[in-house]
Amino acid sequence: MTSSAKGKQSDISLAVCGYSRVLEIISNKWTALVIYALENGSIRYGEMERRIEGISKKMLTQTVRKLEWNGLVQRHITPTVPPTVEYTLTPLGESLLQPMRELRQWGRENYWHVEAARANYDLTYCKESQSLTN
């Protein structure tokens, strides 16, 4: 869809863009880490909490519930005392592993470029702001 100077029409929409809807599900940093924790199979809640540095019980609970609501994770409760709760990726969740792995690999290979760009930006614009105040 093209846009004119008079009647500019949007051609990108949050409401209908499939990509933005997927990003809504996976863009939280904890979501990605929970998916990574589950990539090798079922895991108990406590083990997942120990594996994911910095996550609180509240945030882990909210994250796995959201993933369960979205059909990416399945919760299994074994009626023991106390109950044993394990989480597993569903087939839909497993289908997300490959793109998530590719994103992780991209980060490993390229994040240093991001850091260099940030440093260059800061250096450039810090100099500009300093010269404007002098």
UniProtKB/TrEMBL annotation:
<dbReference type="InterPro" id="IPR036390">
    <property type="entry name" value="WH_DNA-bd_sf"/>
</dbReference>
<keyword id="KW-0804">Transcription</keyword>
<dbReference type="GO" id="GO:0003677">
    <property type="term" value="F:DNA binding"/>
</dbReference>
<dbReference type="Pfam" id="PF01638">
    <property type="entry name" value="HxlR"/>
</dbReference>
<keyword id="KW-0805">Transcription regulation</keyword>
<dbReference type="InterPro" id="IPR002577">
    <property type="entry name" value="HTH_HxlR"/>
</dbReference>
<protein>
    <recommendedName>
        <fullName>HTH hxlR-type domain-containing protein</fullName>
    </recommendedName>
</protein>
<feature type="domain" description="HTH hxlR-type">
    <location>
        <begin position="17"/>
        <end position="115"/>
    </location>
</feature>
<keyword id="KW-0238">DNA-binding</keyword>
<dbReference type="InterPro" id="IPR036388">
    <property type="entry name" value="WH-like_DNA-bd_sf"/>
</dbReference>
